[in-house]
Amino acid sequence: AETVVKRVGAENRDEVLATTILAYALSALMTGAVFLALGLFKLGSLIAFFPRHILVGCIGGVGWFLVITGLEISSRMTTELTYTLETLRFLFQNHHVFALWSTALSLALLLRLLQQKIKHPFLVPAFFMAVPGVFYVIVWIAGFEWEMLRATGWVFPMPEGDAPGWQFYSYFDLKKTNWSAILETVPAMMALTFFGILHVPINVPALGVSTGQDNVDTNRELVAHGWSNILSGGVGTVQNYLVYTNSLLFIKSGGDSRVAGLMLAAASMVVFLIGPWIVGYIPVMVVGSLIFHLGLELVKEALWDTWGLVHPIEYLTIATIVVAMAGLGFVQGVFLGIMLACVFFVVTNSRKEGVRYSCTGASAKSTVRRVYRQQKFLREVGKQIYIFKLQGDMFFGTINKVENEIRQVLSRQRWEANPIQFLVLDFALVRGVDFSAAEAFGRIRRAVRSKGVVLVLSGLDHESEMGKALKMVGVWGAGAGAGLGEGHGQGNSVFGGREGVDTQSFPGGLSEALEYCENCLLASYYKTRESTLEMAKRKRLEGLMAGATFRRAIPEEDEGDDDDEVGPMSPDTVSTNFFADQLQNSPRKNHIYQAARQTLHPRDKPSPHPVNLQQPVPTLLAAFQDTRENPTDFYLRLSLYFVRRTVLAGTILWRQGETATEGIYLVEDGTLRSIQEFQDSGKVQRVVEVILPGTITGELGLFTGNARASTVMSETDSILWGLSQDGFQKMVKDDPALAVEFMRVGMSYSAERLDIMVAYAFSLS
Description:
This protein is an alpha+beta fold. The protein contains 27 helices and 15 strands. β4, α20 (465-472) and β5 (504-506) form a beta-alpha-beta unit. α3 (52-74) packs antiparallel against α13. 34% of the residues are buried.
């Protein structure tokens, strides 16, 4: 209005009125269009992220505004209330003013006492209908003049003029409208629209909180606000949006139905048509006590009812919002509350553990089915794999603790007790990584590189925001391997020539990452062992040529530096090490060789079985000979019940849920894949198990007859040996002792697999 007056001139009264009321209507149309668009595009769901304690703080702030408004109205203050000594003197030292506002406040307190005794929705409307009746009786008995009551502030003054509400339509005149002034008011229209948008996300959820409505559809409310403002602007009136205080009072008074809303609309229409003269007969104490009542209720809800129920920092935020809204204003209080909520979020999440758990590869293993001897070897050397299961948001508040925990594994004390070869970081439960966290992971990569440790990432999608952030700082991808060969003196990698190995990443999950680490440990041993045996042969040949006689050499642990690539071979009867001048040891390699001597080395334990055996006996021996002690005759008799079968890649042997009619399969050559699907939070999850040569699958279905727990298919062209249900039943009938021992062997094998799968399941939790 001031913009229009300044543009048009106060002397042009008709032009000012026509332009101003049209600007009001256009502003309502603009607000309605914005509300409607927000609701139709489902942007109201963003409001769901508005912190609940911020809403509670806003409720308390509104309650305080109402208490102040009650003081202003009931004391008949002519200016806005300020927190000064003059205001206190005006309210308390002036006995007439004190009687005005204290009467209204006393009525509000009386109503609150009655509500403690009477639990009925009609109490509030009945109370506010009774108070004017009592007032009118007193006025009639005492014979007070209405003009005197209006002059002394007990009754509202009579409005000037008695024009009906529809008279303003006569001021619309497009010919007298100043369109340049309309354009100048567009910024004010946008500000009003923003003000409405700011209130609705607060008022609607706050009303839901106060009325116990947990299923408030904010998008539906926005659409309703859009149509309401469009209709309002279409009939030439001003903006509108849900008023929290009036709506709450109306609902708590029993107005929680459409019939009540229609009744209120009809009563408002009557006042609109007959004019505002009725206001001159309403006692001020009625309106004052009504405002006091609702204000005290909201302040209590925000500050009293939440005491001891919310976190102390959240309660401090609520109280701060109430104080800020009282001292600074509504919008300032809301923004201060949002800032405090952000600080609270950072502080709270910084206290959360970014590492869900950490363990070694001895506790968590891949789902690959390996021969028993390899499994035993990996149990021994698994602690050279260290796994960190990360969780939550990796940001500046949590990453320092995560980085410190990882660096502890690389510290001198921990390193001397357990040197590692692989550091596995699982990102499956990580929601996001900010730049500070990405930089920290870059520092971690450089730290593990200096120790000769391979950094392995799992559960990380390369195309995701996290993957791109880590690639940007060189954790993986191009540049991650740059300079990896530097500074490898102390932590030289166990792998021959692999000091410059790049960061490894496996989006498929933790099992793939652990499979890679386990394969490297096995390959490292076999490769080094072959080169060691070859060197031993050359040395023996040189000794024989020199006239020396040697006995058989075996791997033996020896102490040395941390820079060699191959373990020593020491003669049993010679005290000197023939390779000390060429080979050196590292703690990690010593650990591998010690474990290998106990599990993998063929000379440690001579085989009691003949060498030249026909399939499937050698494969049966590879699968079962280390689980239970049995003579060769047992495996020869058992092999008679197995039938050879060749399958092509992609062949499905059985599906999950099918009856176990196929029996058991022993893998001679090729690779099978077992896929188990299950529902988790409405999503289909998969557990994939790789089945290698020298292992079996399907033993539980064969022995129990239950439905298959997973789908098994051939990943490559494979040679299998199958034992069907009919074949097993024939074994039970023809050779019961063989069948019983086979069940014992098979269940021992399954027990080993169960331990591994339980460990893997633990790693997923």
